[in-house]
Specification:
single chain; 468 residues; alpha/beta; 3-stranded antiparallel beta sheet
């Protein structure tokens, strides 16, 4: 290898190189100066090798020049290859390049100016960690449970629609990875593959929940619930924050006109969805989001939870809780879980992030945590985001868009997202000074910057019927 015009024999040194063998092989017989100089202090190689391995100068006119690879840090986007993706943000950037424009518009779209979507992630950045040290963290157990079902990691795949827009396998890939990785999977009511077909892929011990949008024709919903129970689903996730579709302008600009409806991947994804079977509008008449919500019953109210319970004995999760008051009301109506979510910022622009709602419940309705399981969804991109939510009282967290973006690479991409999250959670749990999920406590985070933005007006608890 050549460095600064000098040739070095690294044959014996290579196996012990701290940076690994691969980088040395890349520059074998070539000039590695540009790669070497920025990360090594002067004299490093001279100290590492005996003088016998310093072979002397070389005529640089005869040497092949190799430029170091560009990276995201240098202002160039991550390459659209799976091996080039080191984190969930890399997966998203790659998906933007690889997905068809209309598919990307559907996955990435959010309400109005998309500020709430961005805020979901920014809220996590306002929370700092308080790591404890000098604790034995040799081994870490990141397993947990969700409604009594074992999960290898306190993460579930959130309901997200139209997987086949990204890849022919669509939700099949999500189901397979969820089963192999021990992640519960909440199957979207608007999945591009039928919930029966997804259930048929389940492996022994796999946990599948079903997302429910209540149809204006209640008899159709009752029939659907009976089929879901028969298919082996373990719970019903009733979505309540979408009585009508949000104004998703990115999606509206890519609405399903005749040209897009004729695209095989678009057509197959939409025409096989349960939304269309439930009475949604024809494919070429509206944006994808409009198609998905055209059958939803906007009259749904708290009293309807009793009706749903009368149809099925499965546990109920209410998805879309955004205030402490509604968290308390959900408990009063006997649900087994609440999912704090603003629908990925796709519904009401200006809604609170799930992390804010979690903190609001801690402030005004702390009793909720002992009476129902509390889940958080939206904006989670790092293992540290997961740990922050868990430390503040969440039972588990949901991840949606990153898994959909990963479908641009098919099942290997989905598996990579699962692996990245597992590695980051396990690594950062130990760095935080804990060896299992139950050891996470509110004292391990500083959420004061975010707490300053919580609602501070008059509060009337639905349970206490008193002002706070």
């Amino acid at each position: 290898m050549i460095i600064s015009g000098q040739v070095y024999d690294l044959t014996e040194f290579a196996p012990s190189h701290p940076g690994g063998l691969k980088i040395l092989l890349k520059y074998a017989g070539k000039d590695a100066t540009e790669e070497y100089d920025p990360i090594h202090p002067p004299g490093t190689i001279e100290e590492a090798l005996p003088k016998s391995k310093h072979l002397g100068p070389v005529d640089m006119a005869t040497v092949v020049q190799v430029k170091p690879e560009s990276t995201a840090a240098s202002g160039v986007a991550a390459p659209p290859t799976l091996t080039g993706c080191l984190n969930l943000n890399d997966i998203e950037r790659a998906a933007e390049v690889l997905l068809k424009a209309k598919a990307w518009a559907y996955y990435a779209s959010a309400a109005d100016d998309e500020r709430t979507k961005n805020w979901n992630n920014e809220a996590f950045n306002l929370v700092r960690l308080r790591p404890r040290v000098l604790r034995d963290v040799t081994h870490a157990d990141v397993s947990s449970t969700m409604l009594g079902h074992k999960m290898s990691l306190p993460i579930f795949i959130s309901p997200a629609a139209m997987g086949r827009l990204a890849h022919p396998d669509g939700e099949k890939a999500l189901a397979r990875v969820a089963g192999a990785s021990g992640f519960p999977y909440i199957v979207s009511a608007n999945a591009s593959i039928s919930f029966e077909e997804i259930a048929a892929l389940a492996v022994s011990g796999q946990t599948l929940f079903y997302q429910l949008y209540v149809n204006r024709d209640r008899k159709k919903t009752e029939e659907q619930l009976r089929k879901v129970v028969k298919a082996g689903y373990k719970g019903i996730c009733v979505t309540v924050d979408a009585p009508v579709a949000g104004k998703r302008e990115r999606d509206e600009r890519s609405k399903l006109d005749a040209e897009s409806a004729s695209d095989p991947s678009m057509r197959d994804a939409v025409t096989t969805s349960d939304a269309l079977k439930a009475g949604a509008e024809p494919v070429a008449s509206a944006s994808l989001s409009a198609v998905m919500f055209s059958y939803v019953d906007a009259s749904l109210s708290w009293s309807d939870l009793a009706w749903i319970k009368s149809v099925t004995n499965l546990p109920i999760i209410v998805k879309g809780i955004q205030t402490a008051e509604d968290a308390a009301l959900a408990v009063q109506h006997g649900v087994e879980g609440i999912l704090l979510s603003n629908h990925g910022g796709r519904q009401l622009e200006g809604a609170p992030s799930a992390l804010e709602t979690l903190l609001e419940i801690r402030r005004y309705e702390p009793g909720v945590f002992g009476k129902t399981e509390v889940y958080v969804d939206g904006g989670i991109r790092r293992g540290t985001d997961v740990l922050k939510a868990l430390a503040l009282g969440a039972t588990a967290v949901g991840v949606g868009r990153p898994f959909m973006y990963a479908l641009a690479f098919g099942q290997p991409g989905v598996q990579k997202v699962a692996d990245i999250l597992r590695d980051e959670v396990a690594q950062n749990l130990r760095l935080l000074g804990a060896t299992k999920i139950s050891e996470l406590t509110p004292a391990m985070v500083n959420a004061r910057p975010l707490e300053m933005q919580l609602y501070a007006g008059e509060y009337v608890s639905p349970g206490l019927k008193a002002k706070l």
